[in-house]
């Protein structure tokens, strides 16, 4: 069995080929959520888009 | 090895204590689940639903959860710093104080003392005790890390450091209150501010008790059990920093459609959705780690605990953010969907991962093997079935409740009375008790296995001496 981080340096117990890898799908998720967050914040902030939960509620009553 | 013997006794003490409080919490949980469909099981004044429920949540989050976190964090810190704890006697005192605090907490909750803040029910004298406990923990963890004999800091240490700092800040800020006598106090903040601070705390209790210390265990014990190094060190670090950064902004998702200013709700929702990325960073890392050799699922009995645990963590961290979205929140908030969600996290992720870590640590401390892999496998399947049944029944009844409450006649009046909605819950509540029973039996297999391993270890040590 290979030595792990108790009996060697932690750096020696690394998946050498992949230790610095960031999966592409995960990166897309990461940045996608950041950009979506900026968009969503703008859309649902009263001082930016004018949306408020009171207005949304009143609109739902007229439907 | 003898350098560690005293500290290992402390670690073991925390594990045994946490299991003890776990039994109390689970039994009370079963009891209150029956109370919901058999009200005569409420025995006033001490054993009514209102008092027992907080004993259940506090007993399991702080007794089982924090107890195991203290013990296993000490263990991980020693291993990764390659030295015994800096203050062994202080850690032992910490163990005694912990048990005294949990016992007093249980008594005070039975007596009905309650700050009326979720997960922060304990009154102010006990809060001071908890802060002292936490400071002791911090001194030992930081002291040992500063004096470490291994320069590089593995990811688990970062998660433990985040736990220590974040819980300290959250606990103190939310528990600031004005005492009105020894057993009564008023929150320092009023109205909407009180709610906002409370849920900033409440949600981060999930973040820094049910997430970061459990990830510390996951990142340490998964490689230890399987012999497989973590897939990507970089991914683990980026996921860590983005997780701790984002978590602290998310509490407002508990207050969607309340008088809390719209923009704060929106900000909370945005950060909550973002949290999927760092959470899934750990999920992906776990899958890829075991993915380098899937045969470990068969050859090492603990692998499936960790993989199933991280799977429920992954599901939990998609379901949670989904619940934060306004339209979803308006349907399922205040319904039984929410306990369904919480229990997938606590029974599926936290308890699964913690139990697997204890399975690893106890034989190590006694320098022996686990008593029975068969019993561990039985434990695994029972808690898995129990937890799935629990969550699924609660999701169904939660959606049903939400839909019934929202249904209106053309003139705007409610279509269903409260009682009509309530009656429809009974079959699901009864099923939930059955699910809880299956889970409890699974946990009894776990406790039996640990007890027998310790007995075996003691006999072994006696024969060696």
Task: Summarize the structure in words.
- The complex is a heterodimer of chains A (63) and B (465).
- By secondary structure, chain A is mainly alpha-helical.
- Chain A has a domain at 22-62.
- Chain A is built from 3 helices and no strands.
- Chain A has helices at residues 24-43, 46-49, 53-62.
- Chain B has 2 domains: 1-188, Up-down Bundle (Cytochrome C Oxidase, Chain A), CATH 1.20.210; 254-465, Cytochrome c oxidase-like, subunit I domain (Cytochrome C Oxidase, Chain A).
- Chain B has 17 helices and 2 strands.
- Chain B has a two-stranded antiparallel sheet.
Structural features:
heterodimer; A: 63 residues; mainly alpha; B: 465 residues; Cytochrome C Oxidase, Chain A; two-stranded antiparallel sheet; 17 helices; 2 strands; globular
Largest sheet descriptor of chain B: 2 strands, antiparallel
Strand and helix order of chain B? HHHHHEEHHHHHHHHHHHH
Number of strands of chain B: 2
Choose one word for the global shape of chain A: rod-shaped
Any idea what the CATH superfamily of the largest domain in chain B is called? Cytochrome c oxidase-like, subunit I domain
- Helix count of chain A? 3
Biggest sheet statistics of chain A:
none
Tell me the structural class of chain A: mainly alpha
How would the global form of chain B be characterised?
globular
CA(first)-CA(last) distance of chain A: 68 Å
**Percentage of residues in DSSP E strands of chain A:** under 5%
